[in-house]
Structures are given as structure tokens and as C-alpha cells.
Amino acid sequence: MLTSLRNPMVKQFRRLHQTKARQQQKMFVLEGTHLLEEACATKAELKVVCCTENWQQSHLALWETAIAHANRVELVSEAVLKVIATTMTPDGVVAIAQLPVTHPFSQ
After folding, report:
1. pTM of the predicted protein model
2. Which residue range forms the structural domain that includes residue 65?
3. SS3 state of residue 42
4. Based on the number of CB atoms within 10 Å of its own CB, is 73 exposed (0-12), middle (13-18) or buried (19 or more)?
5. 45 φ, ψ to 5°?
């Protein structure tokens, strides 16, 4: 379980709270069960999924799906979750996803 607020992954989540970092790295943060379900359903490229132990135990099927779709999965402490999430009351899961490639319309 990840408990250190100084972990490089925690720092990566914090950087992605800034628009400039999201644009440069072409990644963004997903927060919450519903958004993770949607990301898995659309086969979004998940770089990291982090959740609390309580969330994992109450969402076992989605946890297994996230393991299959993500490059990395981590259990994190409540303290770490509060730092990496942007919402005031996170529901227990956050993820980093790759921005999808978009193509301009041809004329």
C-alpha cells in the first residue's frame, strides 16, 4: 500500500492538477467510480489506477477490470488519496489516463 506523500507517482498526480502539465504530458486525471467504469468500457489507455482498500473491497469486479486495462494499479492510503484527488470528498478511486488522439476534420 502506498502511504508516502513524497512518492513520485503522488507527485505525478499533483502535477496533472495543472492544465499546462496535462497538455504537455497528454494525460489527465479521472476521479470516481463512474468515470473509471466509463474509461474501462471505452478502452481508454489507463496509465495508473489508485484506490483505497475500502473501495477495492466494495468494487471487486471493477477492480479486476482496472487491473486488466491499466499499466499500473496501486492501493493507497486515505491520506494519499486526499492529496492526489481534486474533489473535496473523493469516493476512493482515481486514475491517470492518456488523452485520446484527435484528428481534425478534413475539408
Report:
1. 0.91
2. 8-93
3. coil
4. middle
5. -80, 100
Residue 103 lies in a domain: no
End-to-end CA distance of the chain: 51
How many folded domains does the chain comprise? 1
Question: Is 27 within a domain?
Answer: yes
pLDDT per residue over 7-60, tens digit each? 999 999 999 999 999 999 999 999 999 999 999 999 999 999 999 999 999 999
Q: Determine the 3-state secondary structure of 86 from DSSP.
A: coil
Q: In what order do the strands lie in the sheet with 27-31?
A: 27-31, 93-98, 46-51, 70-75
Domain containing residue 65: CATH number: 3.30.1330.30
